[in-house]
Write a structure and sequence with these properties.
This protein is an alpha+beta fold and about 325 residues long. Helix content is about 20%, strand content about 30%. The longest helix is centred in the first third of the chain and has 13 residues.
Length: about 325
């Protein structure tokens, strides 16, 4: 019996070269399992993070005597088997080999399903997700959503090779702390492959982005900080100040791009985001500054003025 009152081994089971390990840390890795078991023989297969709490594992030795050696050692040892300070309970498995049947999530594809653990929706912005994953190649599309498993994202790459590189590098890892809000200590990424091959993004927003289609309609929630007009005592709408400007561009004779708008508006302060879209046949843009005062200064200086010489493209 272990000091915790739980039996560490079951002696009634028929010995098997496959051992069943329980009470592991939920983030236990294959490397940690092998490190625990390799003193007793050659490990030929493992299956990690199984069970409802993902705190169990199976380890298969090359030879039955090697598995018996491990069970016997810890049965007579005063020190229990441990991983990261947690006592691990060991027993023979009723299986004689580990068969790792690949689930759909293990079959490589160009779209990744990412579960971001330890955060609420809104704690990790779509821009941060894009920044982290675009380090491995061009990200075509991102869609975020909430499921029973938590806050998740679908991330589409050009091909399965790029997606695999991102998964291999980031799975079980954490998003860098400096990219997270102050109240979030850490968050872990669990990444599998999705059966999707091409995500259907209907508009740009804070929950979905298509980086291949700059002409996709923009949902106003694509830029944070937008406020709705309030109603004054006289019943008329009273415009509230905001750090986001809505610019309507009239008399367009030349192209107005994100770069053009950035040049114009950044003269008054740091421009955080710009989104251009068409509404009622008119070109409009949302321009986000870090604070209300900068936005107000830009509005006062630019409203009614032209972008180009000759009176073209009034704002």
């Amino acid at each position: 019996m272990s000091t915790s009152g739980q039996p560490q081994f079951r002696y009634t089971q028929t010995p098997s070269k496959v051992l069943h390990l329980r009470n592991l840390p939920w983030e236990c890795t294959e490397e940690e399992l092998i490190e625990l078991c390799k003193p007793f023989g050659k490990i030929v297969n493992t299956k990690c993070n199984v069970g409802a709490n993902r705190n169990q594992a199976f380890v298969e030795f090359a030879d039955l005597n090697q598995a018996i050696s491990m069970v016997s050692y810890y049965a007579s040892s005063s020190e229990p088997a441990q991983v990261r300070g947690k006592t691990v309970y060991i027993q023979y498995s009723n299986r004689h080999e580990i068969v790792n049947n690949k689930s759909p999530g293990d079959i490589p594809g160009n779209v990744l399903l990412v579960t971001i653990e330890g955060v609420e929706a809104g704690d990790v912005s779509i821009d941060v997700i894009h920044l982290v994953f675009s380090a491995f190649g061009f990200v075509h599309k991102i869609a975020t959503f909430e499921k029973a498993a938590g806050f998740q994202a679908l991330i589409q790459f050009s091909d399965s090779e790029t997606a695999s590189a991102a998964r291999n590098a980031l799975n079980e890892r954490s998003i860098p702390r400096y990219l997270l809000p102050e109240h979030v200590n850490s968050c872990h990424l669990r990444i599998s492959y999705s059966a999707h091959t091409d995500l259907n993004i209907k508009f740009q927003s804070h929950r979905s982005r298509d980086y291949t289609n700059p002409y996709l309609p923009v949902n106003p929630t694509a830029i944070e900080g937008i406020v709705q007009p309030a109603v004054g005592p006289d019943g008329k709408k009273k415009e509230l100040e905001s750090n986001v400007l809505l610019a309507s561009i009239e008399n367009m004779q030349y192209a107005v791009t994100v770069d053009v708008l950035h040049t114009v508006f950044s003269a008054f302060g740091t421009v955080q985001k710009i989104a251009i879209f068409e509404k009622n046949g008119q070109t409009q843009a949302l321009v986000q500054y870090p604070d209300v005062s900068t936005a107000a200064a830009a509005r006062e200086a630019l409203e009614g003025h032209c972008i180009y010489d000759g009176g073209y493209c009034l704002q």
